[in-house]
Amino acid sequence: MSGDGRARRFVRAWDDLRGRSGRQVVGLLSAQVTVARTGAVLARSTASGAIGRSAARTRMAEVEHEGDAARAELVRILRRVLATPIDREDLFRLSRSVDDVLDHLRDYVRETDMFGPRELTFAVEPLQAVIDGLDELENAISRVIDDPGSVTEAVLATRKSCSRVRQLYQTRLTDLFAGPLEMDTLRRRELLSRLDAVGRRLGEAADALADAMLKRSH
Length: 218
What we know:
With 218 residues, the chain is mainly alpha-helical. It has one domain (3-217): Up-down Bundle (Methane Monooxygenase Hydroxylase, Chain G, domain 1), CATH 1.20.58.220. Helix content is 84%, strand content 0%. The chain has seven helices and no strands. The protein has helices at 3-18, 20-48, 53-80, 88-115, 124-142, 151-178, 183-217. Helix 5 packs parallel to helix 7. The chain is globular. This is DUF47 domain-containing protein. InterPro entries: PhoU-like_sf (IPR038078), Put_Phosphate_transp_reg (IPR018445), UPF0111_domain (IPR052912). It holds the Pfam family PhoU_div. Belongs to the UPF0111 family. It comes from Streptosporangium longisporum.
């Protein structure tokens, strides 16, 4: 190894010992969750009628690009640092699941524009539950280094929001099929299924963080 290579490795090791790399990783994870939340807020705005579907679809493409950039930067840092605050494999799982949340939100917004159901108010409450869950997940991630003992409680709050999404999906679906079977019924069903998938991916993110904290405690 060259002298420059040894020097860079020493700097990385020193940063790891001082915890700087760990905080950088946590900050990048939080940034990724923040972008996903932006996507969820945009989706809710579409459902409430605050923004047009076509305009939301265009804006969501920009949000997705931001999410891809945040994940790419996290992956780059994870390949460089010598030590991470939680298990490296679980970090990848967590990041991938958050990315999946954003991907499904993107698909939801795109499908609202493509399918064109008469109205989308049925999606406002499930999307608010997703936003709440992302807030709790970001709260959990922010505690990983300084207050690891409280992470599990915040993760449980995330899971509670995911359960809320599932409950609302089932309730909305029951109400939907209680009415006449029309083309609009099928459109809403597809969009509800997409929101359910968002909740499930968010739950997987929470599980990845919970698993990581369990390993850390042993």
